[in-house]
């Protein structure tokens, strides 16, 4: 097995993952330059965090609040039953 920190290990990592990282629109681009790669990786993580927060605030939270009718911050049994019924899969006790 190759040492992942060796030049050969880094080369194999780039070969396996680089196309996927670039082709899927991810800003992480591996160059072999540790400082540039670390900066690019951090920028990519920052972008992923921003995307996650946006999705959570714009999509997940409003959908959750629709069924958290008592505004407790949790979905209780009756709220879960209503959610399931709304989705077409009614639950029974």
Structure overview:
The structure is a single chain. The protein has one domain. The chain is an all-alpha fold and 93 residues long. The radius of gyration is 22 Å and the shape is elongated. It has helices spanning 7-23, 34-67, 77-86.
Please give a handful of descriptors for the protein shown:
93 residues, mainly alpha, 3 helices
Order of helices and strands: HHH
Which of globular, elongated, flat, extended, rod-shaped describes the shape? elongated
Structural class: mainly alpha
Q: Uncertain runs with pLDDT below 50, 5 residues or more?
A: none
Computed Rg: 22 Å
Mean pLDDT: 77
Distance between the termini: 54 Å
> Main sheet, how many strands, which sense, barrel?
none
Number of separate strands: 0
Can you tell me the number of structural domains? 1
- Helical segment count: 3
Helix content: 55-70%
What portion of the residues fall into strands of 2 or more residues?
under 5%
